[in-house]
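> tool_call: predict_assembly(chains=two)
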Amino acid sequence: MEKQLKVSAIKDGTVLDHIPSNQVFKVIDMLNLNKISTQITFGTNLDSKILGKKGIIKISNKFFADEEINRIVLVAPQAKINIIHDFEVVEKRILTVPHTIKGIVRCVNPNCITNHQKMDTLFYTIVKNNEIELKCHYCERITTQNNLKIISSNH
Amino acid sequence: MPNNLITIQEYSKEEILGALELASKFEKEPNRPILSDKVVASLFYEPSTRTKLSFESAAGRLGAKVIGFSDTTVTSETKGESLRDTIKIVTNYADLIVIRHPLDGSARFVAEIATVPVINAGDGTNQHPTQTLLDLYSILKTQGRLENLQITIVGDLKYGRTVHSLIHAMSHFSPSFIFVSPHELRLPQEYRDFLTSQAIPFKESSNLEEGIEGASILYMTRVQKERFSDPVEYEKVKESYRLTLPMLKGALPNMKILHPLPRVNEIEIAVDDSPHAYYFQQAENGIYVRMAIMASLLLKRVDF
């Protein structure tokens, strides 16, 4: 069996593994990876025992604060975060659901003030039947994982 | 007491009772110019004549000067000035801001920008907390208590924000509820779950007469045409939740009918003369409740 890495190893940095294939680009968006100047390699539709197909993102020389990385629990709850030093995994982090989500996600309610003013969205997270719901701090409506829209960091 | 009134859920049971007690003092003695050195900004981004007049009457009885507008066409909002910028300016002109705005969550946003207390006079379909307080005041005044009452709520239970806030606020006082609505407009799941979690008994029905028997309060709301995507559906249900005088035969002697107004046709005019009708006095109570909220947000203590 071929034992070659499909996405090459990094010396120092962070590896995000077990991302659902269809969420790779959302994760890139949520972590503002398009603004990073260090080397990033990623693969998607790779074979995975757990997910069937998975995505992986490797970011050289970048280490995330908990509050930053925990955002991706919204789209990739099973993601594994590996911290790499000198080609070795020195730390495995588990994602936890943050109490609040600031920015990143758009409120599902078209009549919400956050969709009409230049301002950050703010949500309180509610975990219900293994799904995360976001309650808008402003309009109090619930945005579910199914209708989650990421505010693209491109603008 | 919180620094703003944005949602009724942020007021504890004690704070609600405190506000109602102060309102009853203002009702006995309505002309108290204790805010004569204050300016109240009344910003109405959508027309709501009754709410606006009630707030301005309340401010007037407290001696405060009122500035503001009630029509977005006369503000620079239409020229692209953001709500944020308007509030940043107005917060320097006034000691208190009363805001009515068509967008959900706008009042919370305004409270975050303003450096003076903010009262939410209705933010889109979200919250209208002074309406809830005047509902509670009317219940307390007519029934002599808030605890252990049977309350029947009729009409648009799905979108009616006054209904949702009333349910939340009454949950402090061990009520039992009967909800009467067309199936399309039944109470949303999250509120039914909330009542279950608080062990508050409730029944759902589509028969108005069933809800009248045994009730202390019959809270009527209008079924709004704009809530229906299909106008045929509206035509089908609009007559079924209309209260008529003969329906009141089996009502408790002290049962009172409340309605947030404006009424369309859900209460026939003949009911107005019944001793059960209370909706016009209910509106009057709004002034005392709004006086109580303004005074307690602006003064550390209100003496009588």
